Amino acid sequence: MTRWFTLETFRQLCFDLAATASWIKLEPIPAFYTRRPGILESCLGTPQQTFDEKPLYPTLVEQASIFFYLLIK
Known about the structure:
The protein is mainly alpha-helical and 73 residues long. The protein has 3 helices and 2 strands. Strands 1-2 form a two-stranded antiparallel sheet. A hairpin with a 2-residue loop joins strand 1 and strand 2 (54-55). The longest helix has 14 residues, at 7-20. The protein starts with 6 loop residues before the first helix and ends with a helix.
């Protein structure tokens, strides 16, 4: 069974990373909720897309690739 990120779990992951990563302290990070609404939700939902009941991104590598591509785009 595939478990997908929700917006809240992704927010918590980002918070945990920012709290523990020493390199992040050198760079100011805006508050999570100052982001543009809808963009992150779209990035989180894209790897879950299907066509004719078949996943468009069937492997973990493909899912991660499209997710990170959209995040940096």
